[in-house]
């Protein structure tokens, strides 16, 4: 009895001492440091990942949750879209437009693809890329003439038979050259890239001379928003430089025009990661498709992707970027400045058309050189 009583007292005393120690530790322990804020770009990326995982979880046919809680949406998802989601990437932006996506993927595998170029353009311009339709045969022109394909990137004309014209108001390249001379009058556009008429101009021969003086060879490049590929055509014909041209078929067959000139079109939007390996190109040119109408976040990702693909000592050429003057000073100038590139040319001038005068817009032409090492 006495021994048991002593053991009980020892146990109670031990618990009291333990409680006292814990209380003093809580009272006197320093406050944990406040964690640093999570960067905005990381939050955006995490939200994108969560959205993608959430979508695939909802539409995975093997889970019971997707057949009960989300039975109604899942029943309308085309089977080929479910299959593709298990073997290839689907951009989270695709899921923001389920009606368009489901219409696009509602096809019969191993047969002819539906001819819906407008639907494709709508999805791509909304950031849905790469498009997930894969297992069907694309429609081709009914009477293509391979013998008439030009070998010169500045032909007298492009063959109309190599384009499906159904969705366009113009039914020939001649019609396009009369109604859209900036894009489809190949000689007129060529002249605009070779002449110097204001401080905003940077003739291609002058650029090539600058690169040569800096001992920076130009062999490979990307022309973002390059229209019908005239910049790439000049670089190929006169300087033996291989250029990829990103372009969209907005109201005209731009991709077909680029390809018919013997050049390489990339049918990708500005939101898309450039399909080129890191540090492999000498030049990236941003044409007039890159302007203030592009969301700032998209533009920021695009410029950092440009930095990714440029080699050390390569050039970023911003050709007649337009924005409001105050935005260039407070938003776009600092955004470009974050890259830490050397300013070879930086010219700003007022945009003098009615829209420019009304909104206080300006043009920027800049040639920037990436540091040779980081």
Automatic annotation (TrEMBL):
Residues 1-18 form the signal peptide. GO terms for molecular function: methyltransferase activity. It is found in: Endomembrane system; Membrane. It comes from the Eukaryota. GO terms for cellular component: endomembrane system; membrane. One of its GO terms (biological process) is methylation. Coiled coil: none annotated. The keyword Amino-acid biosynthesis does not apply. It holds the Pfam family Methyltransf_29. Keywords: Glycoprotein, Methyltransferase, Signal, Signal-anchor, Transferase, Transmembrane. The keyword Nucleotide-binding does not apply. Its main location: membrane. It is a single-pass membrane protein; Single-pass type II membrane protein. PANTHER family: EXPRESSED PROTEIN (PTHR44067:SF5), S-ADENOSYL-L-METHIONINE-DEPENDENT METHYLTRANSFERASE SUPERFAMILY PROTEIN-RELATED (PTHR44067). Belongs to the methyltransferase superfamily. This is Putative S-adenosyl-L-methionine-dependent methyltransferase protein.
